[in-house]
Design goal:
The complex is a heterodimer of chains A (404) and B (248). Chain A is of the alpha+beta class. Chain A is built from 13 helices and ten strands. Chain A has a six-stranded mixed barrel, surrounded by four helices. Chain B has 248 residues and is α/β, with parallel strands linked by helices. In chain B, helix 6 links the parallel strand 7 and strand 8. In chain B, 43% of the residues are buried. Classes of the chains: A alpha+beta (404), B alpha/beta (248).
């Protein structure tokens, strides 16, 4: 009975291929959205956690504030107030800060012989390797000496190394950055992307002192990064940085800071918030399309019932009870939804795969999402197939037999 | 014990502000093993009567005893059970499901049989047995659309037999068939009636076809005009033999 009904349902679907496909579209989109949402949510959470581990929760970011000295809101980052000297002062004057590095960056063409590559140049102090926890694959990081002596040295990311040198060993080679020769000290381990933003693999780190001379003459850094001496000293470090900077920036009592200090903890939280927002949006999209899809299913099932009134009459004459007819049409609608669900599943899987591959993320595919989408499909089939099935089961056998 | 017994059977329709008696105060008794034809012009109420006797409908008032059980006040589902287990239906337009093959069509009534829950193997075996009775064994896996009208009607007969009914209701069983095929179908019905003792209740417009049965009831305006046994009963086998003779 059950299998025969499924067979009949499939035959009916195949007989009306175009109609079935259009009907399933809503379900397909809805289920794809669920799959993509859950899978990407999982992989992003995983990445954030990885980042947490590598960056360490002890780091702090000091950014230029959105709010000016006068207290009026400014466009984001239009005025820089953090100087390279600020970084040094924080490192020297704040007891809870282990080290601090200014960070400035810009894209620049780098050349090695005939090869060139568009990398992002980062002007930093030697402390950055400790703060950002950047392990080297080969060579050494540049030292405090290089920073003090404005050394034309650099540490390059894996991508840069591959694109400029191929199989050649880059250590000790000279590359040209904006026509200035820099000696390569070390190559960073490959990191891959970590949920948006530029990747470490595409970067070239040089001493900020050299950056100031050869790349960008400004005395202001884009932002500062600091490392608290221990996890317990994150908050004291934040306070000390604030005091030091207020003093250095001559901010009077009662006036707001012209900078912002963010701890890694806060950043992780805000990233998680963003992710939750995105998930919420996708849930919204998914439910809308599942509802629209469900209405489509209901519509087509009503048509299907109307087309087969005579068949229903025959079945009733042969002894089918209301529940048998009900079951038949519910199975048909569930089969329709499940088929849509499987197409959506495949589609969502492919999209997830494509995104994860293009981002070089660790591949993750959630079995929870599969179970979830199959359940959703069945639920939509039952809920929206109910009214048409009910209508079919309530038909008068005599009237139904008489219809053409 | 009669197969069918009705008392004061009444079916009334309200048309506008008029009451129309499709069946009026009917007393009817049909014994086991009879082969009865019901004749009458359209609008005579014979369709209403057949619907009630076939348990597709319930009377407005009066009693209908089928196999000594009062079925005149049963629920939809109980009527469905009776149709499924006691009555076999044959229609003018065969009413086979074209989406499934011959075998599945014959199996269909067994799927709804909740008294005997046949296994798939039993279903197939029973379907094959009934297809053998109507002589369609070798076409069991055919598509319905591949069959001629006569063959389709034979599939319908097989389908009606598969739950071992006591009674067969045939509504114009030869209405869409040519003469020879009609005789073939009547031959099967006569055979079922004689050999398997299945009671048959048939509706037809054709006086000739009526001569194949054993008893003719004429019906008009909801009442019985005449109710007589068939005097010169025709056997379909003889007619088919004549056909064969004429050809050669």
């Amino acid at each position: 009975m059950f299998w025969l009904n499924i067979k009949i349902a499939l035959q009916a679907l195949v007989a009306n291929k175009m109609r079935s496909l259009l009907t399933m579209l809503g379900i397909i989109i809805g289920v794809s959205a669920v799959i993509i949402m859950v899978s990407l949510g999982q992989v992003t959470t995983y990445n954030i956690n990885q980042e947490w581990k590598t960056l360490g929760v002890n780091s702090l970011y000091i950014k230029n504030s959105d709010v000016g000295k006068t207290g009026t809101a400014r466009l984001n980052g239009t005025r820089k107030v953090l100087t390279y000297d600020d970084a040094k002062a924080i490192e020297d004057e704040c007891p809870s800060v282990a080290c601090c590095s200014p960070v400035s960056s810009c894209a620049a063409l780098t050349i090695y012989r005939e090869q060139n590559w568009n990398a992002t140049i980062y002007g930093v102090s030697d402390a950055i390797f400790q703060i950002e926890n950047l392990p080297l694959e080969s060579g050494l990081p540049f030292t405090y000496h290089s920073v003090r002596n404005r050394g034309k040295v650099c540490v390059i990311g894996k991508n840069v190394a591959q694109n400029l040198f191929g199989d050649e060993d880059p250590i000790g080679k000279i590359i040209r950055i904006k026509d200035n020769p820099f000696r390569i000290m070390g190559v960073l381990k490959e990191k891959g992307t970590s949920g948006g933003g530029s990747t470490v693999d595409d970067r070239i780190y040089i001493p900020y002192t050299s950056y100031k001379i050869f790349i960008d003459g400004s005395q202001y850094a884009d932002y500062l990064e600091a490392l608290a001496a221990s996890q317990a000293e994150i908050l004291p470090a934040e306070m000390q940085i604030k005091m030091t900077l207020r003093e250095r920036h001559k901010i009077k009592e009662g006036k707001p800071d012209d900078f912002e200090v963010q701890t890694m903890l806060e950043l992780l939280k805000s990233a998680q918030n963003m992710l939750n927002m995105l998930s919420l949006f996708l849930v919204f999209v998914a439910s809308i399309s599942l509802i629209v899809g469900g209405i489509g299913i209901m519509n087509i099932m009503l048509v299907s019932v109307t087309e087969r009134i005579r068949e229903i009459g025959v079945r009733m004459a042969l002894g089918a009870k209301g529940k048998h007819i009900m079951q038949q049409f519910l199975i048909e609608s569930v089969v329709l939804c499940l088929l849509g669900g499987f197409i959506g599943l495949t589609f969502g899987f492919l999209v997830t795969l494509a995104i994860e591959m293009s981002q070089k993320w660790k591949f993750m595919f959630s079995p929870v999402a599969v179970v979830l989408s199959v359940c959703f499909s069945i639920a939509v089939g039952v809920i929206f197939g109910f009214v048409p099935a009910m209508r079919a089961s309530k038909l008068d056998p005599i009237e139904a037999l008489r219809s053409e | 014990m009669p197969l069918i017994r009705t008392e004061h059977l009444q079916k009334t329709y309200i048309v506008g502000d008029m009451e129309v008696h499709a069946v009026h105060d009917l007393f009817l008794t049909i014994e086991q093993g009879e082969f009865v034809t019901i004749m009458g012009p359209s609008g005579s109420g014979k369709t209403s009567l057949m619907n009630i006797l076939g348990c597709l409908d319930v009377p407005t008032s009066g009693r209908y005893y089928l196999d000594d059980r009062d079925v005149s006040r049963l629920s939809r589902d109980d009527l469905a059970t009776i149709r499924n287990t006691k009555i076999g239906f044959i229609f003018q337009q065969y009413n086979l499901l074209t989406r499934i093959n011959v075998m599945e069509n014959v199996i269909l009534p067994m799927l709804y049989n909740e008294e005997k829950r046949y296994t798939r193997a039993e279903q197939v075996r029973k379907a094959e047995k009934t297809l053998e009775i109507v002589g369609l064994t070798e076409r069991k896996l055919f598509d319905i659309r591949q069959l001629s009208g006569g063959q389709q009607q034979r599939v319908a007969i097989a389908r009606s037999l598969v739950n071992d009914p006591q009674m067969m209701l045939a509504d114009e069983p030869t209405g869409a068939l040519d003469t020879k095929t009609s005789f073939e179908v009547m031959d099967i019905l006569q055979d079922l009636n004689e050999r398997l003792k299945i009671s048959i209740l048939m509706v037809t417009h054709s006086p000739e076809i009526a001569q194949f049965s054993k008893r003719i009831i004429s019906f008009r305006d909801g009442v019985v005009l005449s109710d007589e046994p068939v005097k010169d009963r025709i056997m379909a086998k003889d007619m088919l033999a004549q056909f064969a003779a004429k050809k050669s």
